[in-house]
TrEMBL record:
Transmembrane segments: none annotated. Pfam families: AIM24 (PF01987), TerD (PF02342). PANTHER family: CAMP-BINDING PROTEIN 1-RELATED, TELLURITE RESISTANCE PROTEIN. Residues 177-334 are annotated as: Disordered. This is Stress protein. Residues 1-170 form the TerD domain. It comes from Streptomyces oceani. InterPro entries: AIM24 (IPR002838), AIM24_sf (IPR036983), Stress/Tellurium_Resist (IPR051324), TerD (IPR003325), Trp_RNA-bd_attenuator-like_dom (IPR016031). Gene3D superfamilies: Mitochondrial biogenesis AIM24, sav2460 like domains. Residues 183-210, 237-252 have a biased composition (Low complexity). Residues 218-236, 253-296 have a biased composition (Pro residues).
Length: 553
């Protein structure tokens, strides 16, 4: 019997089936809409670092055929075959997504699902409806990801930007400022560059009509300034082809037929009609001081030191010929700024908890719909309808917290938006619990799902004031965000594992912890000591761990 998933639910695939050869079926009922359903093979950073693992209608399988698009069958709109034991180690996640081809929005979907089938039996299904969305034009359906073992997660995350938003999310590039040539291949993001051969030589957008004879005529303009007489008979053959070879903002390349002499090369050039021709012809390209010929990229764009300061459109790969008319490149400043800020763009991965960077975490309250408890004052940004309220610990909780030093001043975040958390630029580490438990000191807890159970745990010990230490234990299914100062280290527990109590951040709850005191009467009889008199000793079966930060608090 298939296990029904809700949005945000996750499970180990080994708990669903013992097989590794899976059938992934996607069905979407939406009259009048067409969908492109694809699979992104992502690396450990959740990026599409190898476009051969983008499986879609134009690339139906990966190189080793561990991912295959099978097409519509068995009542599914689209289907895939996934062979887990053949997926290379560089691929850590398979993200299945659907985007609308043409006009429409996800709210028009009547119903849909993504399901896993193994050995002919359906083992998992996540169903959704259009009422869960509004104006989105694409959505992430589900993930098969590797975290110690392969797991399945129901995502159900929509994107307002449609397919473009999905591509940027996974590291794809959408050539918005470079409209495609009339190659007809769709879409421009596709990894196999079907139409790339038509414009290999120029960085400018290919808005010129490709011609059969344009490619051989393009190399002839550069030699013209150095040897005016020999190239003159060849250039009048295809003036339009010269324009196609260098489709920049400048006019066609220097007309060869109008002036046989080297004195007046190009009257029709729009950027600098009077001054540029005499300078470009009189001085050879290696020593051109001011302005190179208008449409010739290799003629002198690298050498003129005074003029390039004004030619700002250079980041777009355009030669600095139009240096006196920068408004002819309207996208110059905007695109330059966008490129600079691209690495800081929000990363909407579709998961409930997402690290935007090492010091900023985001939670999507719309996934699962359960509230989050966070340290008061840790919210730095939120979007959508989010309610913040005080979360009291009660009379008994305040007494226990004050007595043990494990009191947490919490706020409750609920609603349907996204909340960003940070505190003092500390390093954040979301730890996902699936029925297991972890011990974390209260001062290192930034936020956690309200579904997690938490309580104060006592660590027995002798020879220290009070006779014990205390920590917080979190247990259940959910995520707890741990804060550290610096990058921590995770070590396996062995019989001889000792750690400073002020540097320990967390440890697996199954590990045995005792307080070890090295205070001796003989040592106290002499002035001074090592400063490491109280440590924590950890014991436990293989699989237990401790997390230690490079700082003592």
């Amino acid at each position: 019997m298939a296990r029904e998933f809700q949005r945000g639910h996750k499970a180990k695939i080994s708990d669903l089936t013992a097989g590794t050869d899976l059938y992934v079926g996607v069905q979407i009922t939406a009259p009048g809409l067409n969908f492109d359903i694809s699979c992104f093979g992502l690396d450990a950073d959740e990026r599409l670092s190898d476009d051969r693992y983008f499986v879609f209608f134009n690339q139906p399988k990966s190189p080793e055929e561990s991912l295959q698009q099978l097409g519509p069958q068995a009542g599914d709109t689209e289907s895939f075959r996934v062979t887990l034991d053949r997926i290379p180690s560089s691929i850590q996640k398979l993200s299945f997504s659907a985007s609308i081809d043409g006009d429409g929005q996800m709210s028009q979907v009547a119903s849909g699902y993504i399901r896993l089938v193994a050995g002919g039996d359906e083992v998992a299904r996540y169903s959704f409806q259009g009422s869960e969305f509004s104006t989105e034009r694409a959505m992430m359906l589900g993930d098969i990801y590797l975290k110690d073992v392969w797991r399945f997660a129901a995502i159900g995350q929509g994107f307002d930007g449609g397919l473009d938003a999905l591509l940027r999310n996974f590291g794809g590039e959408v050539a918005e400022d470079e409209p495609a040539a009339d190659s007809g291949v769709a879409p421009g993001f596709a990894p196999p560059a079907a139409g790339g051969a038509s414009q290999p030589a120029q960085p400018a957008p290919g808005f010129a009509v490709p011609q059969g004879g344009g490619a051989p005529a393009a190399p002839t303009p550069p030699p013209q300034p150095q040897a005016p007489q020999p190239p003159q008979p060849q250039q009048p053959q295809s003036p339009a082809a010269a324009n196609a070879a260098a489709p920049t903002i400048a006019a066609p390349i220097t007309p060869p037929g109008a002036q046989p002499g080297p004195a007046v090369p190009a009257p029709p050039g729009p950027p600098q009609p009077p001054p540029a021709p005499p300078q470009g012809q009189a001085v050879p390209p290696p020593t051109a001081p001011q302005a190179p010929p208008f449409g010739q990229p290799p003629g002198g764009q690298q050498q003129p030191p005074p003029a390039p300061g004004q030619a700002i459109p250079n980041p777009f790969g355009q030669p600095p010929g139009g240096q006196q008319q920068p408004p002819q490149v309207p996208q110059g400043p905007a695109a330059g700024m966008a490129v600079t800020l691209e690495k800081y763009r929000e990363a909407p991965t579709g998961q409930r908890w997402t690290l935007q960077n090492g010091q900023l975490a985001r939670v999507d309250l719309g996934i699962d719909g359960q509230p989050v408890l966070a340290r008061q004052g840790s919210m730095v940004l939120y979007q959508g309808k989010v309610d913040f309220s005080h979360k009291g610990a009660g009379f008994r909780g305040r007494i226990v917290g004050n007595a043990t030093g494990q009191e947490m001043q919490l706020m409750r975040c609920s609603g349907g938006g996204q909340v960003f958390f940070a505190e003092e630029a500390g390093y954040l580490h979301p730890i996902e619990l699936q029925g297991d438990a972890i011990c974390v000191s209260a001062e290192h807890v930034l936020a956690f799902d309200e579904s997690l159970q938490h309580e104060v745990r006592r660590i027995e010990g002798h020879g220290i004031p009070g006779g014990a230490l205390f920590t917080m234990q979190f247990q259940g299914t959910g995520t707890v965000v741990v804060k550290t100062q610096g990058s921590p280290v995770v070590l396996p527990v062995t019989p001889t594992t000792f750690a400073d109590a002020d540097a320990v951040v967390a440890w697996s709850a199954a590990a045995q912890v005792v307080v070890s005191s090295q205070v001796r009467l003989r040592r106290q009889a002499y002035p001074g000591h090592s400063g490491e008199t109280v440590n924590l000793q950890f014991r436990g079966a293989p699989g237990n761990f401790i997390v230690v930060q490079p700082c003592e608090v």
